[in-house]
Design brief:
The protein is an all-alpha fold. The chain has 3 helices and no strands.
Length: 64
């Protein structure tokens, strides 16, 4: 049996599983502003939260 340190070898988790595990294990929420599962008001809330916490995205600054 081979031993691999975390993140090396073995099974690679898909991005949604990483996000889900981060939410469940750490209380960290990673949301794409373009996630089609969200309604427009939900995407707008995500955008507003992101701007409040981290500032405007460079591509948003060019458009107004």
């Amino acid at each position: 049996m081979r031993w691999h340190p975390p993140g090396y070898g073995g099974e690679r988790r898909d991005p949604d599983r990483v996000k889900r595990d981060g939410w469940r294990d750490q209380g960290v929420l990673a949301i794409s502003i373009d996630d089609d599962r969200l309604t427009w008001p939900e995407r707008e809330l995500v955008r507003q939260l992101g701007e409040r916490l981290y500032g405007k995205r460079p591509e948003d600054m060019r458009h107004g």
